[in-house]
């Protein structure tokens, strides 16, 4: 069965705008050093600069220089309330009660003086400009995010997630029972908000709603262009189309990659890092023939004509290129089920309506990427659940191929709590190196851990998450170090270190100094949420490092779900919140004793 024509069309478009195919293996740039196989390309010349600036995260005066004394008190009040368990547990009910008791006008005023004022920049594009300009004066940029969320009941959210296209339409979901457990929509996990406190969730209603989301993202891009230099705008792909498409496409990609790993194991290469596996073409053809997928004569031309296998070996990137260009060969998309050893199609047929929906989703992505390119705004594609993420990452890569030719416009997001995070990062970096475009990623730890673990345990598939927080930290630093090494050697990689973890920020600064990466190159930037971790953000900005606040905005009533999550998140990181409150209190006392408590802001 062939992949949907919409997906093939996306890859074809990338080729038309000049993304080259993989170069011959013998001529490809060598793989990275430090245990990654071989040596890296010769670094481009970088003019000498002064030493990397030092940053002090323990100086409250420096951390809160941009804040008025009233804002210090607000921070103390809000973060203190976030430490009170019963308030956080029942925050949504309390917010609704407050609105009924106080009335809309007084409730909004109270929210703007407290939680809304702490975590949200304003109601619309004009209202957010003063805060963005003030932050910019202290070296802090903005990642704009229109944070309006539908306040759906759990039952409504589950219905949106599970309902078929319509009883009158045949649907590929009819064969869902043949698909792997991880890539099916399951009752009981239809409300994807459960256990998620750090990320917004979109649910599919209809195509008109997806168009509305696209228009919202376009306005956000325009707002970023009009209010800050070199800013970002954030999008989620589940807002732009039917999530079932992402589920099915993810299953295709995972099965295809798993099949490669199975063939590597048969050639004695099991357990190696993804980029270190190289299949001998002759042995691979013999295996394909034994499995009944293709005779040696049939598979011969798969590995010729486009530089695939010219060195006598095929690596994962070569293998992935087959699924781009050979999908018209239905036999190639029959792979063995590892358990049953029976041949199964990678993907079921899509109905005409589903095919049309996928094309519309890709068209919306294209519209957003073009607007970002035209306005000079960088587009941040947020990560989502692991069962959507392979498709999201692949579609993000296709956008990077098209739009990152001159500079990094499209940024993917890599979640380092995933066991396969390092393989994902290293494979994507290698693809960008071979094809000559600018790699861009935001590194995060991940927002869906509790939900992912519960879903894997109850449905019955391997937990995709690292077993401990320490392992996730190790993975984060390993992935980050890989990208920093790439920046040192090619200057065509870019990374946002999106973290509230002070140790990770210090690790990054140390490695930048060791590798000779100066902040003025703007290849490494940092990101934190508005209203949180100012003691990290503002010292970085004032020391000259590119740093950004994730800036949500929207009407008070419509961002209440966002505010609810921020309260829960602060409660979940009490040690960090305690440190922040301590610094706020020290700065307030310093101003009080210095007699500057009522001084105007600089």
TrEMBL record:
Which GO terms are recorded in the biological process aspect for this UniProt protein? Answer: L-proline catabolic process to L-glutamate
Q: What class of enzyme is it?
A: oxidoreductase
Q: Which GO terms describe its molecular function?
A: FAD binding; proline dehydrogenase activity
EC?
1.5.5.2
Q: Where found in the cell? A: Mitochondrion matrix
Q: Which reaction does it catalyse?
A: L-proline + a quinone = (S)-1-pyrroline-5-carboxylate + a quinol + H(+)
Q: Which InterPro entries match?
A: FAD-linked_oxidoreductase-like, Proline_DH_dom, Proline_oxidase
Required cofactor(s)? FAD
Record keywords: Acetylation, FAD, Flavoprotein, Mitochondrion, Oxidoreductase, Proline metabolism, Transit peptide
**Domain called Proline dehydrogenase: residue spans:** 316-576
Q: Which SUPFAM superfamilies match?
A: FAD-linked oxidoreductase (SSF51730)
- Disordered: annotated segments: 14-61, 157-184
An annotated GO cellular component of this protein is: mitochondrial matrix
Q: Could you tell me what this protein does?
A: Converts proline to delta-1-pyrroline-5-carboxylate.
Q: Which family does it belong to?
A: Belongs to the proline oxidase family.
Extract the PANTHER family matched here: PROLINE DEHYDROGENASE 1, MITOCHONDRIAL, PROLINE OXIDASE
Q: What is this protein called?
A: Proline dehydrogenase
The source organism is Coturnix japonica
Q: Which gene encodes it?
A: LOC107321433
